[in-house]
Amino acid sequence: MENSVPAESLDSSFDLVTRMDATEQSVEALRGDVDEVKARLERVSRAAARPVIAGSAEGAPSLELKGFVDGYLRAGRETEWKSISGAVPSDGGYAVPREIDALIAARLKSVSPIRSIAQVVQTGSAGYRKLISTGGTASGWVSETAARPATATPSFAEIAPPTGELYANPAASQAMLDDAGFDLPTWLADEIATEFARAEGAAFVSGSGTNQPMGFITGTTSTAGDATRQFGTLQHVVSGNASTLGTNPELKLIDLVHALKAGHRQGASWVMNAQTLALVRKLKTSDGAFLWQPGLVDGQPDRLLGYPVVEASDMPDVAANTTPIAFGNFRAGYLIAERSATAILRDPFTNKPFVHFYATKRVGGQVLDSDAIKLLKISA
Fold first, then answer.
1. pTM here?
2. Which tens digit of pLDDT belongs to each residue from 54-89?
3. Is residue 199 scored above 50 in pLDDT?
4. What are the DSSP E strand ranges found in 286-353?
5. Is the pLDDT of residue 198 over 60?
6. Beta carbons within 10 angstroms of residue 226's beta carbon
7. How far apart (Å, rounded) are the C-alpha atoms in residues 259 and 226?
């Protein structure tokens, strides 16, 4: 009768052999890693060891030190001792890559905030018109059976904001566009947008009205009140001094506030530049309290006599015959009419090998309601 080995014993023996083989392979791999680490350490040690002159005794000067003494200290040969430097191209500077920050720093441009407080409309044509009712409707008291005579009817005025076209036409070579280390077209577009904002903001304040908006301080002004002043003419309060805000400028500022109708004072704001604001911030009442009040919450505007102050760099400084301070409801008082947003045309054909970025924008502006804005005028 033949002896038979159970199948379970055969399987166990096979698993044991497999595990032993796997263990031996892991040990061999670990030995190889250890040998490799030892070899690296030996190479590092050899590289760190300074070569000595053959046949010299222990502690003799090294080859580098001997070359320095013989070549530089004794013979004065500076070229005998050189270092690799990125500052000089021939000493290794060519091998150092130049890194350019992708964010280009630029001088901050002063952009007028008038657009943010004025009324802005998008127009469909260049000939934009707006009708303004100047009042004139009359009424009367009568008895129950008395006759009803005719009363005056409203009168209208037409507003046609002077419009001009802003343009910019910078050029860049095609090679520059291909090789620049930053997005040159996007950077140019941002620069154009910032310049357009600066130019139109200045025009909203002091534009001549010829091929550009008419600024709110450019037109004629008068000391007459709203009831008698001609429509389209702004009212001004005289400072009483030829070079300053006056002897009691806080009183003039109060007069300016109350020259504005109560309905317009809801939403009114002050507009002046930084130099004028510095003078105004120093004004105090008779009990020593400052008229200017800082915003108590982050993002809240500073206030003067309870109304927010808007700093516009395009407003004039305090000088004779100028209007450095404006107070009013600019949402009701000044109209900005835009024909379209900024359009940029890429032109690679006109002036080869340069690519032009031709940008245009049509915008107009004019005083909408002359009762809604008041000016402080320095005496001539």
1. 0.66
2. 445 555 555 555 555 555 555 555 544 445 555 566
3. yes
4. 292-293, 303-304, 307-311, 325-328, 334-338, 343-347
5. yes
6. 16
7. 9
Where are the extended beta strands (E) located within the chain? 119-122, 130-135, 155-159, 163-168, 171-173, 221-222, 234-238, 269-272, 292-293, 303-304, 307-311, 325-328, 334-338, 343-347, 354-367, 373-377
Burial 8-24 (b: 16+ CB within 10 A, else e): eeeeeeeeeeeeeeeee
Q: Report residue 45 as tokens.
A: 């040690």
pLDDT band at 234 (very low <50, low <70, confident <90, very high): very high
Q: Where are the domains of the chain?
A: 114-135+154-377
Nearby residues of 309 by Cβ (< 8 Å), 6 or more positions away: 269, 270, 272, 277, 292, 301, 302, 303
Banded pLDDT at 22 (limits 50, 70, 90): confident
CA distances, 325 to each of 171, 219, 268 (Å): 40, 15, 13
Integer Cα distance of 268 and 329 in angstroms: 4
Give dist(CA 90, CA 83) in Å, integer: 11
Q: Bridge-partner residues for 157, per DSSP?
A: 132
161 with 128: CB under 8 angstroms? yes
Nearest-angstrom CA–CA distance, 117 and 264: 13
- Whole-angstrom CA distances from 190 to 104, 194, 238, 344, 350 are 11, 6, 42, 11, 23
With a pLDDT cut of 70, the percent of the chain lying above it is 77
Which amino acid appears at position 291 of this protein? L
Radius of gyration of the chain (CA): 41
Q: How many CB atoms lie within 10 A of CB 222?
A: 13
Q: What is the mean pLDDT of residues 318-330?
A: 93
Would you call 181 exposed, middle or buried from its count of C-beta atoms within 10 A (0-12, 13-18, 19+)?
Answer: exposed
φ/ψ bin of 76: left (φ > 0), alpha (ψ from -120 to 50), beta (otherwise)? left
Residues pairing with 292 in the sheet: 304
Under a CB-based contact definition with an 8 Å cutoff, are residues 196 and 361 in contact?
yes
What does CATH list as the number for 114-135+154-377? 3.30.2400.10
| CB neighbour list of residue 20: distance below 8 Å, 6 or more residues apart | none
